[in-house]
UniProtKB/TrEMBL annotation, chains A, B:
Keywords: DNA-binding, Transcription, Transcription regulation
Originating species: Terribacillus halophilus
Annotated InterPro entries: Homeodomain-like_sf (IPR009057), HTH-type_TetR-like_transc_reg (IPR050109), HTH_TetR (IPR001647), MT1864/Rv1816-like_C (IPR025996), Tet_transcr_reg_TetR-rel_C_sf (IPR036271)
The HTH tetR-type domain, residue ranges: 5-65
Start-end of DNA-binding region: 28-47
Gene Ontology terms, MF aspect: DNA-binding transcription factor activity; transcription cis-regulatory region binding
Protein name (record): DNA-binding transcriptional regulator, AcrR family
Keyword match Iron: no
Pfam short name (any one): TetR_N
Upper lineage: Bacteria, Bacillati, Bacillota, Bacilli, Bacillales
Statement: the UniProt record of this protein carries the keyword DNA-binding: yes
Length: 176, 176
DNA sequence: ACTATAAACTAATACCATTAGTTAGGCAAG
DNA sequence: CTTGCCTAACTAATGGTATTAGTTTATAGT
């Protein structure tokens, strides 16, 4: 066999840098192949289809997001630190963040949930309440990012201030 | 001229029912034209391109969402009622909800923001704080819906219970 | 009835993902 | 060292997408 110069991770990395530099919609078989100086059908020797490539991208992008967020739980304000890092990652790398969304079940999807759980640790919530709180906080972060990138909060009120206030509301709500 | 049997709203409505019945990804020039028993290029006599059709869809879908949510502010628990109605609309009509997202600036986009503001009315927030709270609550609702339909909260913990708890956290946070 | 307008059409271009079938390079066995 | 197999790459083709150019034709107003 011709030496497998082309690995799954090489394809995934190329697709990710495509998403990062030219947006998630630029992730096409044709563009990936062009970047690798091969023809599109060759990609099918390594992945079943585009969807499978996007799954692999999601896993890798989630790892990047995880690595960026890791450590924020050891600060004085874990939830605020996590929120700021999360929003900053998504705003700075919209293509990467978009890549991370499709996969909901991999190794790093769980790791990200654990990271949110760690940030909520101080509030000593019981099982069910913890799950509700995780869902709520994660929803808030994703919604904040998603509304902002797709629709955009129109008013010229500072985004950072909104995030701080909103995390404050959530934290006070957990306390009482 | 051949009688304009085909109006902008007729096209928009057809596209919306396509999104509702077969998903937002089924909204293509070919499918819209097929539903109307015309050929795709004819659509360009009424809209500049597909994006413009989707903008019109967003406006109409936002109106439907607004009409569904209107009235919830006159209940005993406006925020919870609004949240439940919002999540219910999005889960029951995912194609319609997806259609509503692209447009961030129309008449009904503002009406929806006012609806959220009304639900927060009881907390008597000042200007800036009100805007932060609106953004936070809207983010939570959209994030909740979006994570659920695209990734899906995996654990078999009741969604309705999560929503109630999460709205409760937010309300308590506003109080203190 | 005639003409101008515009809504529909056909045909074409340039993308997209995907599949079938072919070529050719390198590894392993003889 | 040669032979043969495996497989990664290719070419060619299919059918999908949006969009544009140019043409036909029906109708509304004069």
């Amino acid at each position: 066999m011709p030496r497998m110069q082309l690995t799954k991770t090489a394809i995934t990395d190329t697709a990710l840098s495509l998403a990062d530099q030219h947006g998630y919609e630029a992730v096409t078989m044709a563009n990936i192949a062009r970047s690798l100086t091969i023809k599109p059908p060759s990609l099918y020797n390594h992945f079943k289809n585009l969807e499978e490539i996007k799954q692999a991208m999601a896993e890798a992008a989630q790892k990047q997001l995880y690595d960026t967020l890791k450590g924020t739980e050891q600060t004085s304000q874990p939830m605020l630190s996590l929120a700021k890092a999360y929003v900053n990652f998504a705003s700075s790398n919209p293509g990467l963040y978009a890549s991370s969304l499709p996969g909901g079940n991999g190794e790093y999807a769980n790791a990200l949930v654990r990271l949110v759980a760690d940030a909520l640790q101080a509030y000593k919530l019981e099982n069910e309440k913890m799950i509700h709180a995780i869902r709520g906080f994660r929803s808030m972060l994703h919604g904040f990012v998603d509304l902002n990138t797709h629709a955009g909060f129109k008013l010229e009120v500072d985004l950072e201030a909104s995030l701080e206030e909103v995390v404050g509301i959530f934290e006070r709500g957990l306390q009482s």
